[in-house]
Amino acid sequence: MSILIRWLAGAALAATFLAGSLTTAVAESRIVWGKPGEITYGDVHVAGTSASWDVFQLVYETLLATDENFQLQPGLAESWEQVSPTEYTFTLRDNAAFSNGRKVTSADVVGTFERILDPNTASYWAKQFGSIAKVEALDDHKVKVTLEEPHTAFLPAVAHISAAIIPIEEYKAGSFDPITQMLGSGPYMVEEHKQDESWTFKANPHYWREGYPLAETLYAPIIPDESARIAALRDGRIDYTFFGNPDVELLLARDQNIKVQPQETSNYFRVDVNAKNPDRPFHDQRVRQAMNLSLDREAIRDLVFAGTTEVDYPVPRAFGLEACHQLPTYALPRDQRVERARNLLQEAGNPAPKVSIIATSSSELYSRIAQVMQQSMAEAGFIVEIEQIPVADWLQRVFTDSDFDLSVSWLAGYTDPSMVISWWNPNFAIWNQSFFVDDLALNEALEQVKRMPNGPEREAKLDEACQMIDSGANLLALVNKIDYVAHRDDLIDIRVAPKTGSSNMFQYVDEFKSLKDQ
Q1: Which residues contact 73 (CB under 8 A, 6 or more apart)?
Q2: Closest by Cα among 264, 207, 214, 263 to 239
Q3: Looking only at Cα atoms, what is the longest distance across the chain?
Q4: What is the rounded distance in angstroms from the CA atom of residue 450 to the CA atom of residue 157?
Q5: Spatial distance between the Cα atoms of 419 and 128, rounded to a whole number of angstroms
Q6: For residue range 321-351, what is the model confidence (pLDDT) as tens digits?
Q7: pLDDT tens-digit profile of 271-296?
Q8: What CA–CA distances, in Å, run from 285 to 224, 273, 338, 345, 415?
Q9: Residues 6+ away with beta carbon under 8 Å from 335
């Protein structure tokens, strides 16, 4: 199995994840989360999917965190300082401990960075740190990180769960395997895992935040089917869950005890375009550009998402920047875009390209988006077929075999704009090398963005990169992704941030409180 498939899909995990000895309380508060899907891989430094992240975020912690405005906040580090453009120091909480009771020390931070940066770990996140020259412990609770060159997204990268701090002493001793076990300093620890059935978490008795988590047990049955999760909410089998389908607000509108809270994210729905396979129509850049111009993103917003989302850009709109907004693909009236698209197809000598769109069975939203794409592309002359295939086939065909034309999915936007557009450099991303054409000028622009401090100059460079991304038309943003968090307000009291950039919709989970015994 390739490294790419390993972090994209992971392996089926049959092992039970145990995190230290547990004691059983006589009476306990219990909350129930309807989890939409099983994790895809057990290693927090390798797994690249939100289905894994939402479990890791219960068990592990990062040095820093981010709030709903994408501003950095303390995590395991109670304070930090940027000493110079390339030097950072972190001071750890002196009461932070792993769920086995051992204190978190600087050695755990140093060892964690070393593991992430080790090529043998195959961590997709390592490059998001920039080029690290040295990580050193100044004392038991202070760590210094020195970069080889400035990297503006270093601190936001440290705040993502893929940079979680693990217990290095146990890891090196062989008593902790991060692939088959979870041992962290977060609010919860794993008590039991039944593959594809459920997770049971217990409160970490050594959690640094005194009195938290409020719920002693968090039970998470895995319920992939959306209608089944709705039914479970209605009959009280689960207390909370989340959906990607905007219809859920209407479906649950008459249920007085169920509240639905839309959560804005920096994530967006995307289209992967196969530019590398010479036997595919989109090998011709003019055909790719015609397709890009023909897309009716406004129709996707209105018809698929009932206007609850917004047209989005390679630099996500959640950052509040203007980069990409004035590109002809977005700014021209639709009739002019379609006319340009037709002309490009004529110029390419292919006025009616026959293409297909892969929409995996993992979400019905993908097929809905594909249907709107099919209709809008037809106006420019494309003849479009939609393929609904299993996720495993999608992973193989798109990311390994280069056996596709277009593929619909979504992309995480994180908390710094350079972190998401870095994926347009296939040498950095790796996962898209099967279909993405290398553009040296774009690669250089993306590297410059990483080194620039936030400000007008960086925004101008982001806009320059957007122009090249749009011209290449090799990976396209469609509309931003909204998550819909639903809960039974008679069974549980929860706090949900209005916006997240780290796919961490339950960042306040330690404050979730059961109302069943009141």
Answers
A1: 64, 65, 66, 67
A2: 214
A3: 75
A4: 12
A5: 7
A6: 999 999 999 999 999 999 999 999 999 999 9
A7: 999 999 999 999 999 999 999 999 99
A8: 38, 10, 16, 10, 31
A9: none
Residue that the structure tokens 């957007």 belong to? 466
pLDDT at residue 19 greater than cutoff 60: no
Given the structure tokens 């049971």, which residue do they identify? 200
The DSSP secondary-structure symbol of 468 reads H
Angle among Cα 465, 500, 361 to the nearest 5 degrees reads: 80
Residue 56: closest CA among 184, 146, 144, 157: 184
Q: Give the start-end residues of each E strand in 227-300.
A: 240-243, 258-273
Q: Within a 13 Å sphere around the CA of 349, how many CA atoms are in the beta-carbon half?
A: 1
- Total-model pTM: 0.89
Backbone angles phi, psi at 124, to 5 degrees: -70, -15
Parallel, antiparallel or unpaired: strands 64-66 and 30-34: unpaired
Structure tokens at 163: 């940079």
Within 228-338, strands assigned E span 240-243, 258-273
* Cβ 374 vs Cβ 368: under 8 Å: no
Q: How many helices (H) and strands (E) does the chain have?
A: 17, 19
Please give the share of the chain, as a percent, with pLDDT higher than 70.
95
Cα 493 from chain centre: 26
Angle between helices 364-378 and 285-294 (to 10 degrees): 100
User: Quick count: other Cβ atoms within 10 Å of Cβ 36?
Assistant: 20
Backbone dihedral angles phi then psi of residue 322, each to the nearest 5 degrees: -95, 0
